[in-house]
Amino acid sequence: MNVTEAVTSRRSVREFLDKPVDLETIRRVMDTARWAASGCNYQPWEATIVTGQPLKDLQAKITTTPPQEAEYDWTAPGQEDAYKGRLNAVSKGMFGSMGIARDDGEGRMKAMARNATSFDAPAVLFCYFPRLMKEAQWSDTGMWLQTVALLLREEGLDSCFQEFMALYANVIRDFLGLDHDRYMLFCGMAIGYRDPDAPLNNFEREREPLDDTVKFVGF
Ligand SMILES: Cc1cc2nc3c(=O)[nH]c(=O)nc-3n(C[C@H](O)[C@H](O)[C@H](O)COP(=O)(O)O)c2cc1C
Predict the structure, then answer these.
(1) CATH numeric code, 3-73+116-207
(2) Atom of ligand 1 nearest to the CA of 146
(3) Can you tell me the distance from the alpha carbon of 191 to that of 125, in angstroms, rounded to the nearest whole number?
(4) N or C: which end of the chain has fewer CB within 10 A?
(5) Cα angle vertex 150, ends 131, 74, to 5°?
(6) DSSP conformational letter for 176
(7) Pocket test residue of 162, 164, 172, 191 for ligand 1, highest count of atoms within 8 A of CB
(8) Which family, according to the similarity comment (predicted)?
(9) Using one digit for the tens of pLDDT, what is the confidence trace for 46-61?
């Protein structure tokens, strides 16, 4: 698989096959991802990847705990119509693929709640970093996460990033033995093998036209 194939075949997968992810494969991915760039080479990212019974135990805690206030805000762009439109488009594709109508609030809530068990993925990566990290290091961490996602594709694996997990930061930090004062829980990442036939993994996604977002000068 070349890089273009990894980029274009990656999509957020929300239905997984009942097939475990082995340690050797995931270690290989994480080992290579260390070569992601970061400003000043700080390498701010940290993660724990959980599978098997420990994952079930953590999910039992997540599903029985009310969500907390998220420690960071991922909703701000929704104030502007252009961004709101992009969110609406992905919601339409996602819920539409499951046959959930626009006005079916309960159905939507139920579908969203599947985030709590990471869509039954066999493994979940929890990503965190010390709270002293600022915008630049959040961005570095995103680059590292994307590197992980692309390397997973090379191994035939799929993923879905999950900022949803920020609503359970306290539960997750407790479980992982992380100091609440020191660590920001950034996101989860469901990892496993995609169910190729699931409509939820096949709805059409939208992207803005290149020339609306990137300018080329001096060519
Ligand atoms: C940092 C980050 C957090 C995300 N959190 C969630 C999440 O909590 N739940 C979810 O279903 N998708 C989540 N997504 C997936 C996005 O909805 C998805 O990337 C976007 O709609 C584009 O679709 P694609 O990944 O299939 O290309 C997240 C993506 C990123 C990058």
Answers:
(1) 3.40.109.10
(2) 31
(3) 7
(4) C
(5) 40
(6) H
(7) 162
(8) Belongs to the nitroreductase family.
(9) 999 999 999 999 999 9
